[in-house]
Amino acid sequence: MRYFFSNVIVRVSLIVSSFFLMPSVADAAEQVSSPDGRLTLTVGISGGRPYYSLQRSGEAIIQPSYLGFTLDSGDLSRQFRLVGVSRDAKDETWEQPWGECRYVRNNYRELRVKLQQRGQLKRRLDVVFRVFNDGIGFRYEFPKQLNLKSFQILDELTEFALPWDAPTWSQPTNGTSYYEGVYTCEPISKKDTVSTPITMEVKSDLYLTIHEANLTDYASINLTPRGTRLITALTPWASGVKVYAKAPFVSPWRTVIVASTPGELITSRLELNLNEPCRISTSWLDVGRYVGIWWGMHMTDYTWGQGARHGATTQNTKRYIDFAARHGFKGVLVEGWNEGWDGDWTRIGNHFNFCKTYPDYDLEGLCQYAASKGVRIIAHNETGGSVTNYERQLDDAFSLYERLGINCVKTGYVNTMLDGRELQHSQFGVRHYRKVVETAARHHLMVVNHEPAMPSGLRRTYPNLVSGEGMRGQEYNAWSADGGNPPYHVCILPFTRGLAGPMDFTPGIMNFKNKAVPTTHPQTTLAKQLAEYVLLYSPWQMAADMIENYEGQPALAFIESCPTDWHETRVLDAKIGQYLVTARKDRRSDNWFIGGATDADARTLSFALDFLDAGSTYRATIYQDGPGADYRTNPYPLTILQQDVNSATRITIPLAPSGGFAIKLQKYL
């Protein structure tokens, strides 16, 4: 992967240096402002090159930045003239079938600039900009035209020229697989090529996140810093081509969230608003919690493949179904149930059969047993990266699952190269992931996509894509050689990966002992494990531990009570990478839930409950770090308190090192 991105870097560095040589007199520029007037976007042509810039209340946010492409047929970034401009605006509110909030306001002003190259070919390119109160999105549109039909994008030349060298949270593209890197913070100029989303803390009242929206039939975006100018670096095919296209054609939206507080990043819905409205029926969709035969494999109690410790047996699955039924869990994930797990399945993924079970696993009987208990089996489809083998079986497998009453499938791609040749985040991978989601929708199946392309808001269009991985999840606390996810991990994910979409982080570990890798375990307290159910959003939330570790555990009561579908979300207090307090209101009741977490430093957090209904009383059940709790020495102490609160109450809670708290607020008066 490093080879591909270094090629991009060499080519675009020459373009960057030429920016400062552009003529001082530019062609006429067009402007469009956000509905509240604070953000102003300028678009123009300078020396034949299209550019854009962005200001907030007169302050530069993005300096003049060039646009365009290098195609197989030549340059598509120069010799342009402006041949047309159109404007539009929208202010609507739409309802999510599930989400962090029920209603989303879509309020923007749009500017479309129509460009045409001088010369014999007269190729045309439109750029569409939408300016919201909380940021911007823009994309390229290739109109149908005589001199540009089928074409190849060799490079996208979009720039983000920043006026400051801001501290930036990101993970590197090179050397990182599956987007499962550790997020680090340093000035943007010091970073290698990074994957998006990236989040910048410019000053106390200015935060930016750069990403993309509506990634459709295109390559995933990465960004290469050249000083403080960020250059687009698309993930390539094995051929080196970035995108194969045919006009008419559109790119994904390039997005910049502009926020005054860290919390405004989390509550922004800009990415969703830049995706197309829902295309499927939603009456069959569901949300909830699930358990699974999974953590036991990491602890070496079970195996995925056949043998004496095979985890996916009929008897063991019934135990999990019974537990789920007793404790209000809707699903049971079972890994290792189908043929293909024996041997090194990451190298022989084409051996997976997604319909044929191992002899000790009765899929049909278990689906019937689960249904009798009000529970459903979640089918696991690990591909080992062999997508051709998977696509060949998709319709048959999904038809089987639909017939058996299965309504959710967890997909996996544990191999950095799909079919042994293409990168997961290339156009090839993006096409495959979309095919799976669309096929699943036809069979009334929800998808939890592990080893995914980075989410970009597709859940608005296909809300059966309910969650995904694309970050270091709980599994790193089972086997990672560095001891597990760092203490600040939970305090940065909502401001980075979480801005892309729901995270199947799989919280809820109660037993921190690890006989498989004794030096590795969750770098949190028990209370912080509970906080993750509120802080790390997913409409399907797993209780990841082995079920025997929940028996007799008072902390389980919070997991049982915590919803996964919300009417409203508020960030009460936050410092990116240090601490976070988030409140969410249940969509189906008047109850609120609050989660809070800190990094490796102990601290005391205080916050008001002024968002509660005035004149009402709530019973607060508080799960917090107990005396002596410390993620390094004793993560288990947990104190459970109850008190009555109202909208005038202020709560103060001490947090242990890498500690946390979880609160249920139940309205009763």
Automatic annotation (TrEMBL):
Domain Glycosyl-hydrolase 97 N-terminal: 32-277
Start and end residues of each Glycosyl-hydrolase 97 catalytic domain: 294-470
Keyword Signal: yes
Keywords of this entry: Calcium, Signal
InterPro entries, alphabetized: Aldolase_TIM, GH, GH-type_carb-bd, GH97_C, GH97_catalytic, GH97_N, Glycosyl_hydrolase_97
GO molecular function, one term: carbohydrate binding
Span of the signal peptide: 1-28
Gene3D superfamilies: 2.70.98.10, Aldolase class I
The keyword Methyltransferase belongs to this UniProt entry's keyword annotation: no
Lineage: superkingdom: Bacteria
Cofactor(s) for this UniProt protein: Ca(2+)
Positions of the Glycosyl-hydrolase 97 C-terminal oligomerisation domain: 565-665
SUBUNIT field: Monomer.
Name this protein carries in UniProt: Alpha-glucosidase
Protein source organism: Xylanibacter ruminicola (Prevotella ruminicola)
